[in-house]
Amino acid sequence: AIHHLESGEIANLQPLDGEAPLSQSTALFKTAQLEVIRLVLPKGRSMPLHSVAGDHGAMLQGRIEVTVPGQVQTLQAGQLLYLRGGEPHSLLALDDACVLVTIVLGK
Fold it and tell me: For residue 62, what are the contacts with CB-CB under 8 A and spacing of at least 6?
């Protein structure tokens, strides 16, 4: 099972500082309404076309190319991208990137 934070437990969200190849993605916490994941993508790493059931957004360090059907965008540090639940998308890290993914599971 994937470790999720316990109430009161601290997680590191600091910049990668060149450690992306050594860092791991982490499922931070999950409730009935929300899941938060720290996704680490070293430069050149990709995630193939996939979808997530809930609405979600991402803020990050670095740059990633986000492809949704018919559109390619570059998401940079300090920006937020909103995707509706079920919308197919793929990712490509243009730099070492750290993405804070928030998934709304229930409304």
Answer: 16, 20, 41, 43, 76, 77, 93, 94, 95, 96, 97, 98
Alpha-carbon distance of 57 to 13, in angstroms, equals 16
Helical H segments across the chain, by residue range: none
Is this prediction's pTM over 0.90? no
Percent helix, strand and coil across the chain, each rounded to 5? 0, 50, 50
What percentage of residues in the chain have a pLDDT greater than 70? 89
Residue 73, helix vs strand vs coil: strand
